[in-house]
Each structure stands twice: as C-alpha cells, then as structure tokens.
Amino acid sequence: MRKLLILLTASTAFTAFAAAPSGGVQTAAGTVAPADAARPQIGTFGFDVPGMDRSVGPGDNFYRFANGTWEERTEIPADRSNYGMFTLLDDLSRTRTRAILEEAALAPGSRIGDFYTSFMDEAAIESAGITPLRPMMAKIEAVGDRGAWAAQLGELFRRGVTGPFAGYVSSDDRIPTEMIVRLTQSGLGLPDRDYYLRDEAALTEKRTAYQTYLARLLTLAGEENAEARAAAVLAFERGIAEVHWTRVENRDDERTYNKWARADFDRQAPGFAWTRFFESAGIADQPNLLVSQPSAFAGSAKLIGETPQAVLNDYLLLRLIDDAAPYLSRDYVDAHFAFHGTALNGTPQNEERWKRGVTLVTEMIPDEVSRIYVERHFPPEAKAAADELVRNIIAAMDRRLDGLAWMAPETRARARAKLAAFTPKIGYPDRWRDYSGVAVTRDKLVQNIFNATEFEYRRNLAKLGRPVDRGEWFMTPMTVNAYANPTWNEIVFPAAILQPPFFDPNADPAVNYGGIGAVIGHEISHHFDDQGSRYDQTGALREWWTPQDRQRFEALTGQLVAQYDQYEPLPGHRVQGRLTLGENIADLAGLTVAYDAYRLSLGGGEAPVLEGFTADQRFYLGWAQIWRRKYREENLLQRLLTDPHSPSEQRAAVVRNLDPWYAAFQPEAGDALYLSPEQRVRIW
User: Fold this and answer.
1) Letter string b/e over residues 627-665, b meaning 16 or more CB atoms within 10 A of that residue's CB
2) Which member of 363, 410, 495, 543 lies 3.0 to 4.6 Å from 477 by CB, making a disulfide possible if both were Cys?
3) Residue 141: how many CB atoms within 10 A of its CB?
4) pLDDT tens, residue by residue, 371-422
C-alpha cells in the first residue's frame, strides 16, 4: 500500500549474530545462549561490546564507534546485496518457516505444502520450461490494435503483471471509511526514472545490462531479432520514465490525491483505451478512481498512442517473462538473477532454492503459514511485553506533545486526540484469511502462482463497496519490519521484529528502549511527520494545523533536509534530504520519545553502570546496534537513488541532534558530528 510508512526496506540487515542450531543465538564472541535462558542473548546486557571500535571517537562517527569492529570483521554473504541485523532475523524467520513448509509437504493436500513442493520440484520445472507462459504469450502476440492491447494489459493486471499503470484497493485518503481503487505510475524494468535519464557511467552501465537482459529473455523464448526488439522496448520505457514523477514529488500526499471520474480518463489522458482496460481489469463498475500522478498518466497514454504496435506487444511480452522468470527453468532463473541480483545490486550468488521457495509461499498464501508460525514462535508473554512498551512510548509522546512550545494550543489538543485514537497492532492479526479458494497442485508452479495472484486480486476487489476492515494487516508476522498507516491511524509491529537485538526481555532496559523503543517511537511519530501530520485523528487527509504551525514545522524540517543533504555515502551521490525527510523525522522523534520513556521508567532513580557504560550510553548504543549493516556498492547506489530511508551510518548519526547524547558521550567542538546547541534540530 502506498500510504504505509515503513521502518525499513526489504533486505536490510546485521551479522554479529547468526541463528544457532539449538534455537539460540551465536554472539560475536562465538558463545551460544539458548533463546529461553534468563540472560541476554547478546553480550552481558544486550549489546555486542566486542563489535565496537573505540579508536573512533563517538563524536566523529558514532556508527563506527559502536559498530566498527563488527563492520571490519563482517563479510556480506554471497547471496546478499547487504547484510546486517535485519537480515539475521530474516534468516531466522525463513529457517523457521522452512520447517513448517517441509513438514506440510509430507502430507499431499496441504495447500502450503503442495505449493512449496511445486517450487522445489526442479525436474518438473525444467521439463516445463516456458510452456506455462505460452498461452498468455500467444494472446499478446495476437494483439493487433490499441484497444486489444489495453484489454490484454488489464488481463495481465489481474495476474500481477503491471505495465505503465499499476493499482491497488485502499481507503480513500479523504474519506477513510470508504474503499477505492488507486492507480499509480508504473511500467519500468529499471528501479527508477533516474536509471534511464541520467548519463553518469554507473547508470549507463545498468541500462546496457538491462537491454542485454531483455534480449536474452527474447532469445530464450525463441524470438527472432532480439537485440533490436530489446532496444526498442528500452526506448519505450525511457519515454515512460521521462513523464514519471520523481520520488520526492510522489511523497506529497496532497498532490498525489486526484479523484477522476471514468470520463476524466479519456479527457485528461487520451491515447489509451481506458474502457477496454477497466473492463478487462474488472473495475469498470467504479464511478471514481484515484490517480496519483495525472501528468504521468497523460504522458504515458500519449506515448502508447504513438508507439508502434509491435513494440507495445514486445513490451508486454517482456513484462510477462521477466515477472515469471524466477519460476521457470534454470536458464530463465539465471538470466533474471544476473540482471536483478548482480547487475543492479552487486549480489554474486542467488539464494538457495529453499529460501526462494519459503519467500514465495509466504507471499502467495501468507496467513496459512503465519498462523502456524505464531503458534510456534510468538508466545503470549512476548506480545504482553511488547504491548507494555508501546503503551509507555505512546505516553511519552503524549507528554512531548503536551509541552510542545512551537505548536498552537488548538493544534496541540488535536494532536493529542489523534495520539489517543491510535490503534497499535502487535505480533499478528486477530483473524486469519481463508485461502480455500486457491487451487494448488504439486506439479504446476506457475499455475499455482497465477491462481494465488488472481485470488488476491479478487479478494481486494471484493473490498469495494463494503465497510473498511481495519483489522487487516499488510505485513506477515514473519516480517522483520514495522509500519504506520495514517489512513487507519495505526502502528503495526510483526512478531519477527520483537526479538534480539531489537527486544530481549532479559536485556538491559536501556538497550531495549534504544532498540525497539526507538522503533516504536519512529512509527508513532510517522503520524506527525511532514506527510502523516496531514491526516487527522479519523485518518482523513485534511489540514488540521494552523498555517503558523505548518510554517514553523516546515522551517524545522528544512533544517533536517539541509543536514542530511550534506552526507555523501558514495562519491558523487549524497543522501537526498527531501526524499528521506519523513524517515529522518521519524528517527529523530522516535529516539527522542524513547529516551523520555526510558528515563520515566526509572522512576526518578539511576540505573547502574554496566561494563563501564552508563545507562544513557547504553541507550544510544542500543540504537546504533540495530543499524549495523554493510552494503554492496551497487545496492547502496540504488538505495541512494530510490530509498526514502537514509543509509545506516546516517541513521545512527541522528544522535547529533539530541542533548542527552552530548551529555553521555562528551563530543567536542570540531568533532565531525558535533553541532552547537543552536544548530541541533529539535522538532518534538
């Protein structure tokens, strides 16, 4: 969902600890602590002290001070584009899920077991080759006019294959009690418009690799004149990229809210057979739809009307094959990984097949896996402990709002009412979805994927015209992440993130508050960041701040933009302060509020010094520890161009704005991170 504000992107990470066979965790020192031992799983108090580099001053580089030795000793596994703490827990989740699926596979007739078996049956997949796609390929190749092309795009849409337009069903931002179809720009095979439009060497290299990949897919499929046809498709996609909005523009929730009646599409975006597309996609009965990027829709529709039919058909053909390639025979899998894995992200080696199978089944039939996972790996006491932490952080945020000097009293009262109306979701949903309508066989992988995708498509369409189900989750319990959804005024924490190093009931509370506490504060504060603050306590997109409040807030956030614009993680590539603003605000606010909650938890007393570290030092070290992560250069480049999150080193550096951090570590003027009191950004 577009409106979800996510803590992290996929494939984020940590390596100081690896899953041990006993179910415990291996520390950096090599000792194994059982998961149920009454002592921390990491070190003596929940932090990996040997992973520090004390030759680096905390005021010069706090990330390396806390994590430098870990960084030096850690190698990114061959099947990863980056590696760190989140990857540790993702590996653990997938190992646990593998056991569930392999057990289910022993009994034919189990939907998740049969699905997993169909992915693991390499002999059947090799024998089938591209045959499962042939009927759809024949339909595409038979398209002879723009109307038939639009109808074919709509059919692919139902199968999860998107062209220049993508979409989903969600709450209407201005009327959150109603569900509506939102359409967004889409259709690029490269990660972002910049990959097509910027001429620097690294991106030119990616374009060349992409064209080679497209030609390879056509050749594997038995198509002739592959090189020229691939070049034509790349040129068509460049045309789409030229009209796409930038990622910074797409962050503006006011600008991306545009309600169009059906007739508006032909009038405002001529050149595309909208009626045929809507009919084929099953949304012709919708009187209104939301359009996120009107000018991109107009530009793409015009481009479609001007592009030769053969190029349009090849574009759809390649979208279909690229989407299915990971589930076809080995030659397609290898070609797909060589581009998406190695060329784009620098990853040398594909994941083991079982890992890919676990990911696929979890995506296709999530709740049938999740229900078993929760029963086995998320005890009620873990949920109760997380519930208590959330309550404490919300209470600390309320105190912050109550004392906020720059916000007008009437706005402050509304902000506190919004906070009081929050819905925290912890661990797993209250109800599991029924997937009995998904037909699965043990020997037809691609058909299983199509069946599950169409089922999910129909399930989402069925939401239209019905009451909003606010009990729905958009992450599985196995996901190592968290999110905020402003239209439902909720924060969501899956079970898998409620583990060490984020949260350990046997660890020092300071480390827990600096870890999961700051994550909780991060998600809460998303509802008050530069976009989340535009949604009121009911989840409706409307301005409820005074103009003066908004002006003061934007002056403060402008300082944060300028601060992050200065960081240059790769030569020639800086952090984009505007793109990452929402996440940077959330990091700053989350850490601020978590610190308040921790100090309040002490009841006016002081925690003891542990291994020479004060309580406040342990709190901030807990924050730095969760961001341990190493990137391959290609992956870091992609993140700097596309990711609304700053890289890990810069996320850890947000401490430079916090007065208690200065008191804890005593950085001096002249240190790289040092900011004088008047330079520190103070929002919440």
Assistant:
1) bbbbbbebbbbbbbbbbbbbbbbbbbbbbbbbebbbebb
2) 495
3) 14
4) 999 999 998 888 888 899 999 999 999 999 999 999 999 999 999 999 999 9
Token pair 């359009």 is found at 291
Instruction: Annotate 616-663 with DSSP letters as a single string.
Output: HHHHHHHHHHHT-EEE-HHHHHHHHHH-SS--HHHHHGGGGG-HHHHH
Residue 286 pLDDT greater than 70, yes or no: yes
Tokens 């996929």 sit on residue: 10
The mean per-residue pLDDT over the stretch 153-177 comes to 96
Closest among 500, 494, 478 to 626, alpha carbons compared: 500
Return the pLDDT at 38. 81
Give this prediction's pTM: 0.93
Going through 422-469 in order, the beta strands assigned E by DSSP cover: 423-427
Residue range 426-475, pLDDT digits in tens: 999 999 999 999 999 999 999 999 999 999 999 999 999 999 999 999 99
Q: Report the distance separating Cα 672 and Cα 248, nearest Å.
A: 28
Nearest CA-CA partner of 681 in 581, 599, 574:
581
- Per-residue pLDDT tens over the stretch 530-542: 999 999 999 999 9
Res. 618: pLDDT tops 70: yes
pLDDT over 60 at 34, yes or no: no
Helix, strand, or coil (residue 69): helix
Q: Does CATH place domain 5-95+379-431+481-679 in 1.20.1090.10?
A: no
Q: Which residue has the tokens 């460049």?
A: 238
Long-range contacts at 346-349 (CB < 8 A, ≥ 24 apart): 346/81, 346/632, 346/633, 346/634, 346/635, 347/78, 347/79, 347/80, 347/81, 347/632, 347/635, 348/78, 348/79, 349/78, 349/79
Question: In one letter, which amino acid is 320?
Answer: L
Domain 5-95+379-431+481-679 matches domain 148-323 at the CATH topology level? no
Question: Domain ranges in the chain?
Answer: 5-95+379-431+481-679, 148-323
Region 324-341: mean pLDDT is 98
What single-letter amino acid sits at 328?
Answer: L
At residue 107's C-alpha, the angle toward residues 102 and 109, to 5°, is 115
Amino acid at site 214: L
According to CATH, the superfamily of the domain at 148-323 is Neutral endopeptidase , domain2 (1.10.1380.10)
* Secondary structure (3-state) at 33: strand
**Cα(664)–Cα(528) distance, rounded to whole angstroms?**
28
Peptide bond preceding 501: is omega within 30 degrees of 0, i.e. cis? yes
Q: How far apart are the C-alpha atoms of 33 and 42, rounded to whole Å?
A: 8
